[in-house]
Amino acid sequence: MLDILVAGGVGVDTIVRVPEIAIGEGDNLGVEPIHDYVAHTGNGVSLGCLHLGLTTRFIDFIGEDTQGEMILDRYEREGLDFRHLISPEGTSRSVNLVDDEGRRYSFYDYRHHSDLRLPADFYGPHLAEAAHVHISISNVTRSMLRDLDDGVPVSTDLHAWDGESEHHKEYALRADTVFLSAAKLGGAPEKAMRWIMDNGRASLVIATDGERGGYVLERGGLGRAGTVERYTAIDPVAELSGAVPEWASWRPVDSNGAGDAFVSGFLWGERRGDGLEAKIDAGRVAGAFACRKAGTHSEFITEPLLAGSLAALRG
User: Mapping DSSP to helix (H, G, I), strand (E, B) and coil, where does residue 185 land?
Assistant: First the structure.
């Protein structure tokens, strides 16, 4: 039995370090060395869960191209169970600008044809082995939504949903746990969070908000949504370094992949049977760890470090 099956969401990021995310004067800017990384959301959640000791499988399309070869090489080195089909349009890509504060802006090249879907005879056997399914919002996974077993918990990440885009809604309505970013919700995510819970099956909606922390909405008694609660971001140096020296030199370098790390930490806590507060703490710590090194999904927190950090956090 798999602890988690992750469906969809692999590609390659090209990271460009810039002083600030803005177009300056003139027509060029000298930057630090530009690097490519195996990336995108399904990659981050899969490798994050794998490094936390969860039995993980990942399924998706890649191309027969240089980027596809990068992905296969990385997964062979990591020992990730990756099953894939070939997309004739090639592998998805992004170009991400990352500023001196670690913030990023992404130019996303999905690339696959809008009608491309993972076929049922491919994903069906993987679904049958999964104790939990995390489904990315790439179109290739859309057909899977109708075949998900009601008895198997499902999560998804809507990323920077604006609360209106139709592309995200089918995923939002099917998942039991919905993650999203508050980035496009104008500082007031409650409306979108309540829409998800009022119209779908979710028992939990979490809107992450970067260095400001995030928001949680849990379904309460009689199936009604409760109160939207705020949680703060963690300060690893102040809160953890006294007991866990590895955090003493922490600073935010690159936020690429922090949301995916939050999800993997949260799902690790869920598989352990932790309570909501403990799962959010696991997400907060894993997300902070992901920010300490340049590049997308270039380093993942281990289970011993996460467990030790959570013990320190709880005093």
Answer: coil
The candidate with the shortest Cα–Cα distance to 6, out of 53, 44, 52, is 44
pTM passes above 0.85: yes
pLDDT reported for residue 233: 95
Cα 201 from Cα 310, distance rounded (Å): 30
Q: Are 311 and 304 in contact (CB under 8 A)?
A: no
Place of tokens 């470090």: 305
Characterize 215-248 residue by residue with b for buried, 16 or more Cβ atoms within 10 angstroms of its Cβ, and e for exposed. bbbbbeeeeebeebeebeebebeebbbeebeebe
Instruction: Give the list of residues 6+ apart from residue 174 with CB closer than 8 angstroms, or none.
Output: 135, 145, 148, 154, 156, 200, 201
Using the predicted structure, report yes or no on whether residue 222 has a pLDDT greater than 60.
no
CA distance 309 to 164: 38
The CA distance from 38 to 60, in Å, is: 14
